[in-house]
Amino acid sequence: xxxxxxxxxxxxxxxxxxxxxxxxxxxxxxxxxxxxxxxxxxxxxxxxxxxxxxxxxxxxxxxxxxxxxxxxxxxxxxxxxxxxxxxxxxxxxxxxxxxxxxxxxxxxxxxxxxxxxxxxxxxxxxxxxxxxxxxxxxxxxxxxxxxxxxxxxxxxxxxxxxxxxxxxxxxxxxxxxxxxxxxxxxxxxxxxxxxxxxxxxxxxxxxxxxxxxxxxxxxxxxxxxxxxxxxxx
Length: 233
Ligand code: SF4
Hints:
Blueprint: E1 5-16, E2 26-32, H1 55-58, E3 60-63, H2 64-72, E4 78-82, H3 90-102, E5 106-111, H4 121-124, E6 127-130, H5 143-146, H6 149-158, E7 161-167, H7 173-183, E8 188-192, H8 197-214, E9 217-218, H9 222-227
Helix pairs in contact: 2-3
The structure holds iron/sulfur cluster (SF4).
Iron/sulfur cluster binds near residues 35, 38, 84, 85 and 112.
């Protein structure tokens, strides 16, 4: 791979950001290939899991300048860079983010929180949406693989991080509270797992009151409510 290309799974938009602090905002999405974790319940395993997918056929090696031109040809002010784990390619991501920011775009990066942002990315990105993986979601992965205290601290130090946990049920809120306290994570959003509208609505309803009691924010998955499990939306 040359230095001025990125390994991309898909890029699409305009659509709505379906999760978190920018929920409902018009946005463009760039989803990068590869991940350093192996979450059992991953809904984007087509970006990394060679045992289930032909990754070569899922990968587009795209020039940074072409991705930048595509994004800047659209009117949307928000560009979301996601994965996979996008920070695996952060040296190549840097010129794309710089170009977007210089053109006045807001850039949000969605990350699993195990790779610290470097090379200036930490001061260019408008928001890091950091999603540490819980025991159940990351089944089979040791704690030390999923949770890296120094990296979480690095995200907090940017002053641009929010922490979003994918939750299978209210019984996981104790685990989130313990992580938030141990690593001083704030603000904390909880989001129901699910790839159907019924799952997301039921999950959000189950989380609502417990999240309120604990001081957590709640986000739904708007794109799932609107379009189900549909790549590219
Ligand atoms: S960190 Fe995200 S992309 Fe990687 S395996 Fe887990 S859920 Fe999937």
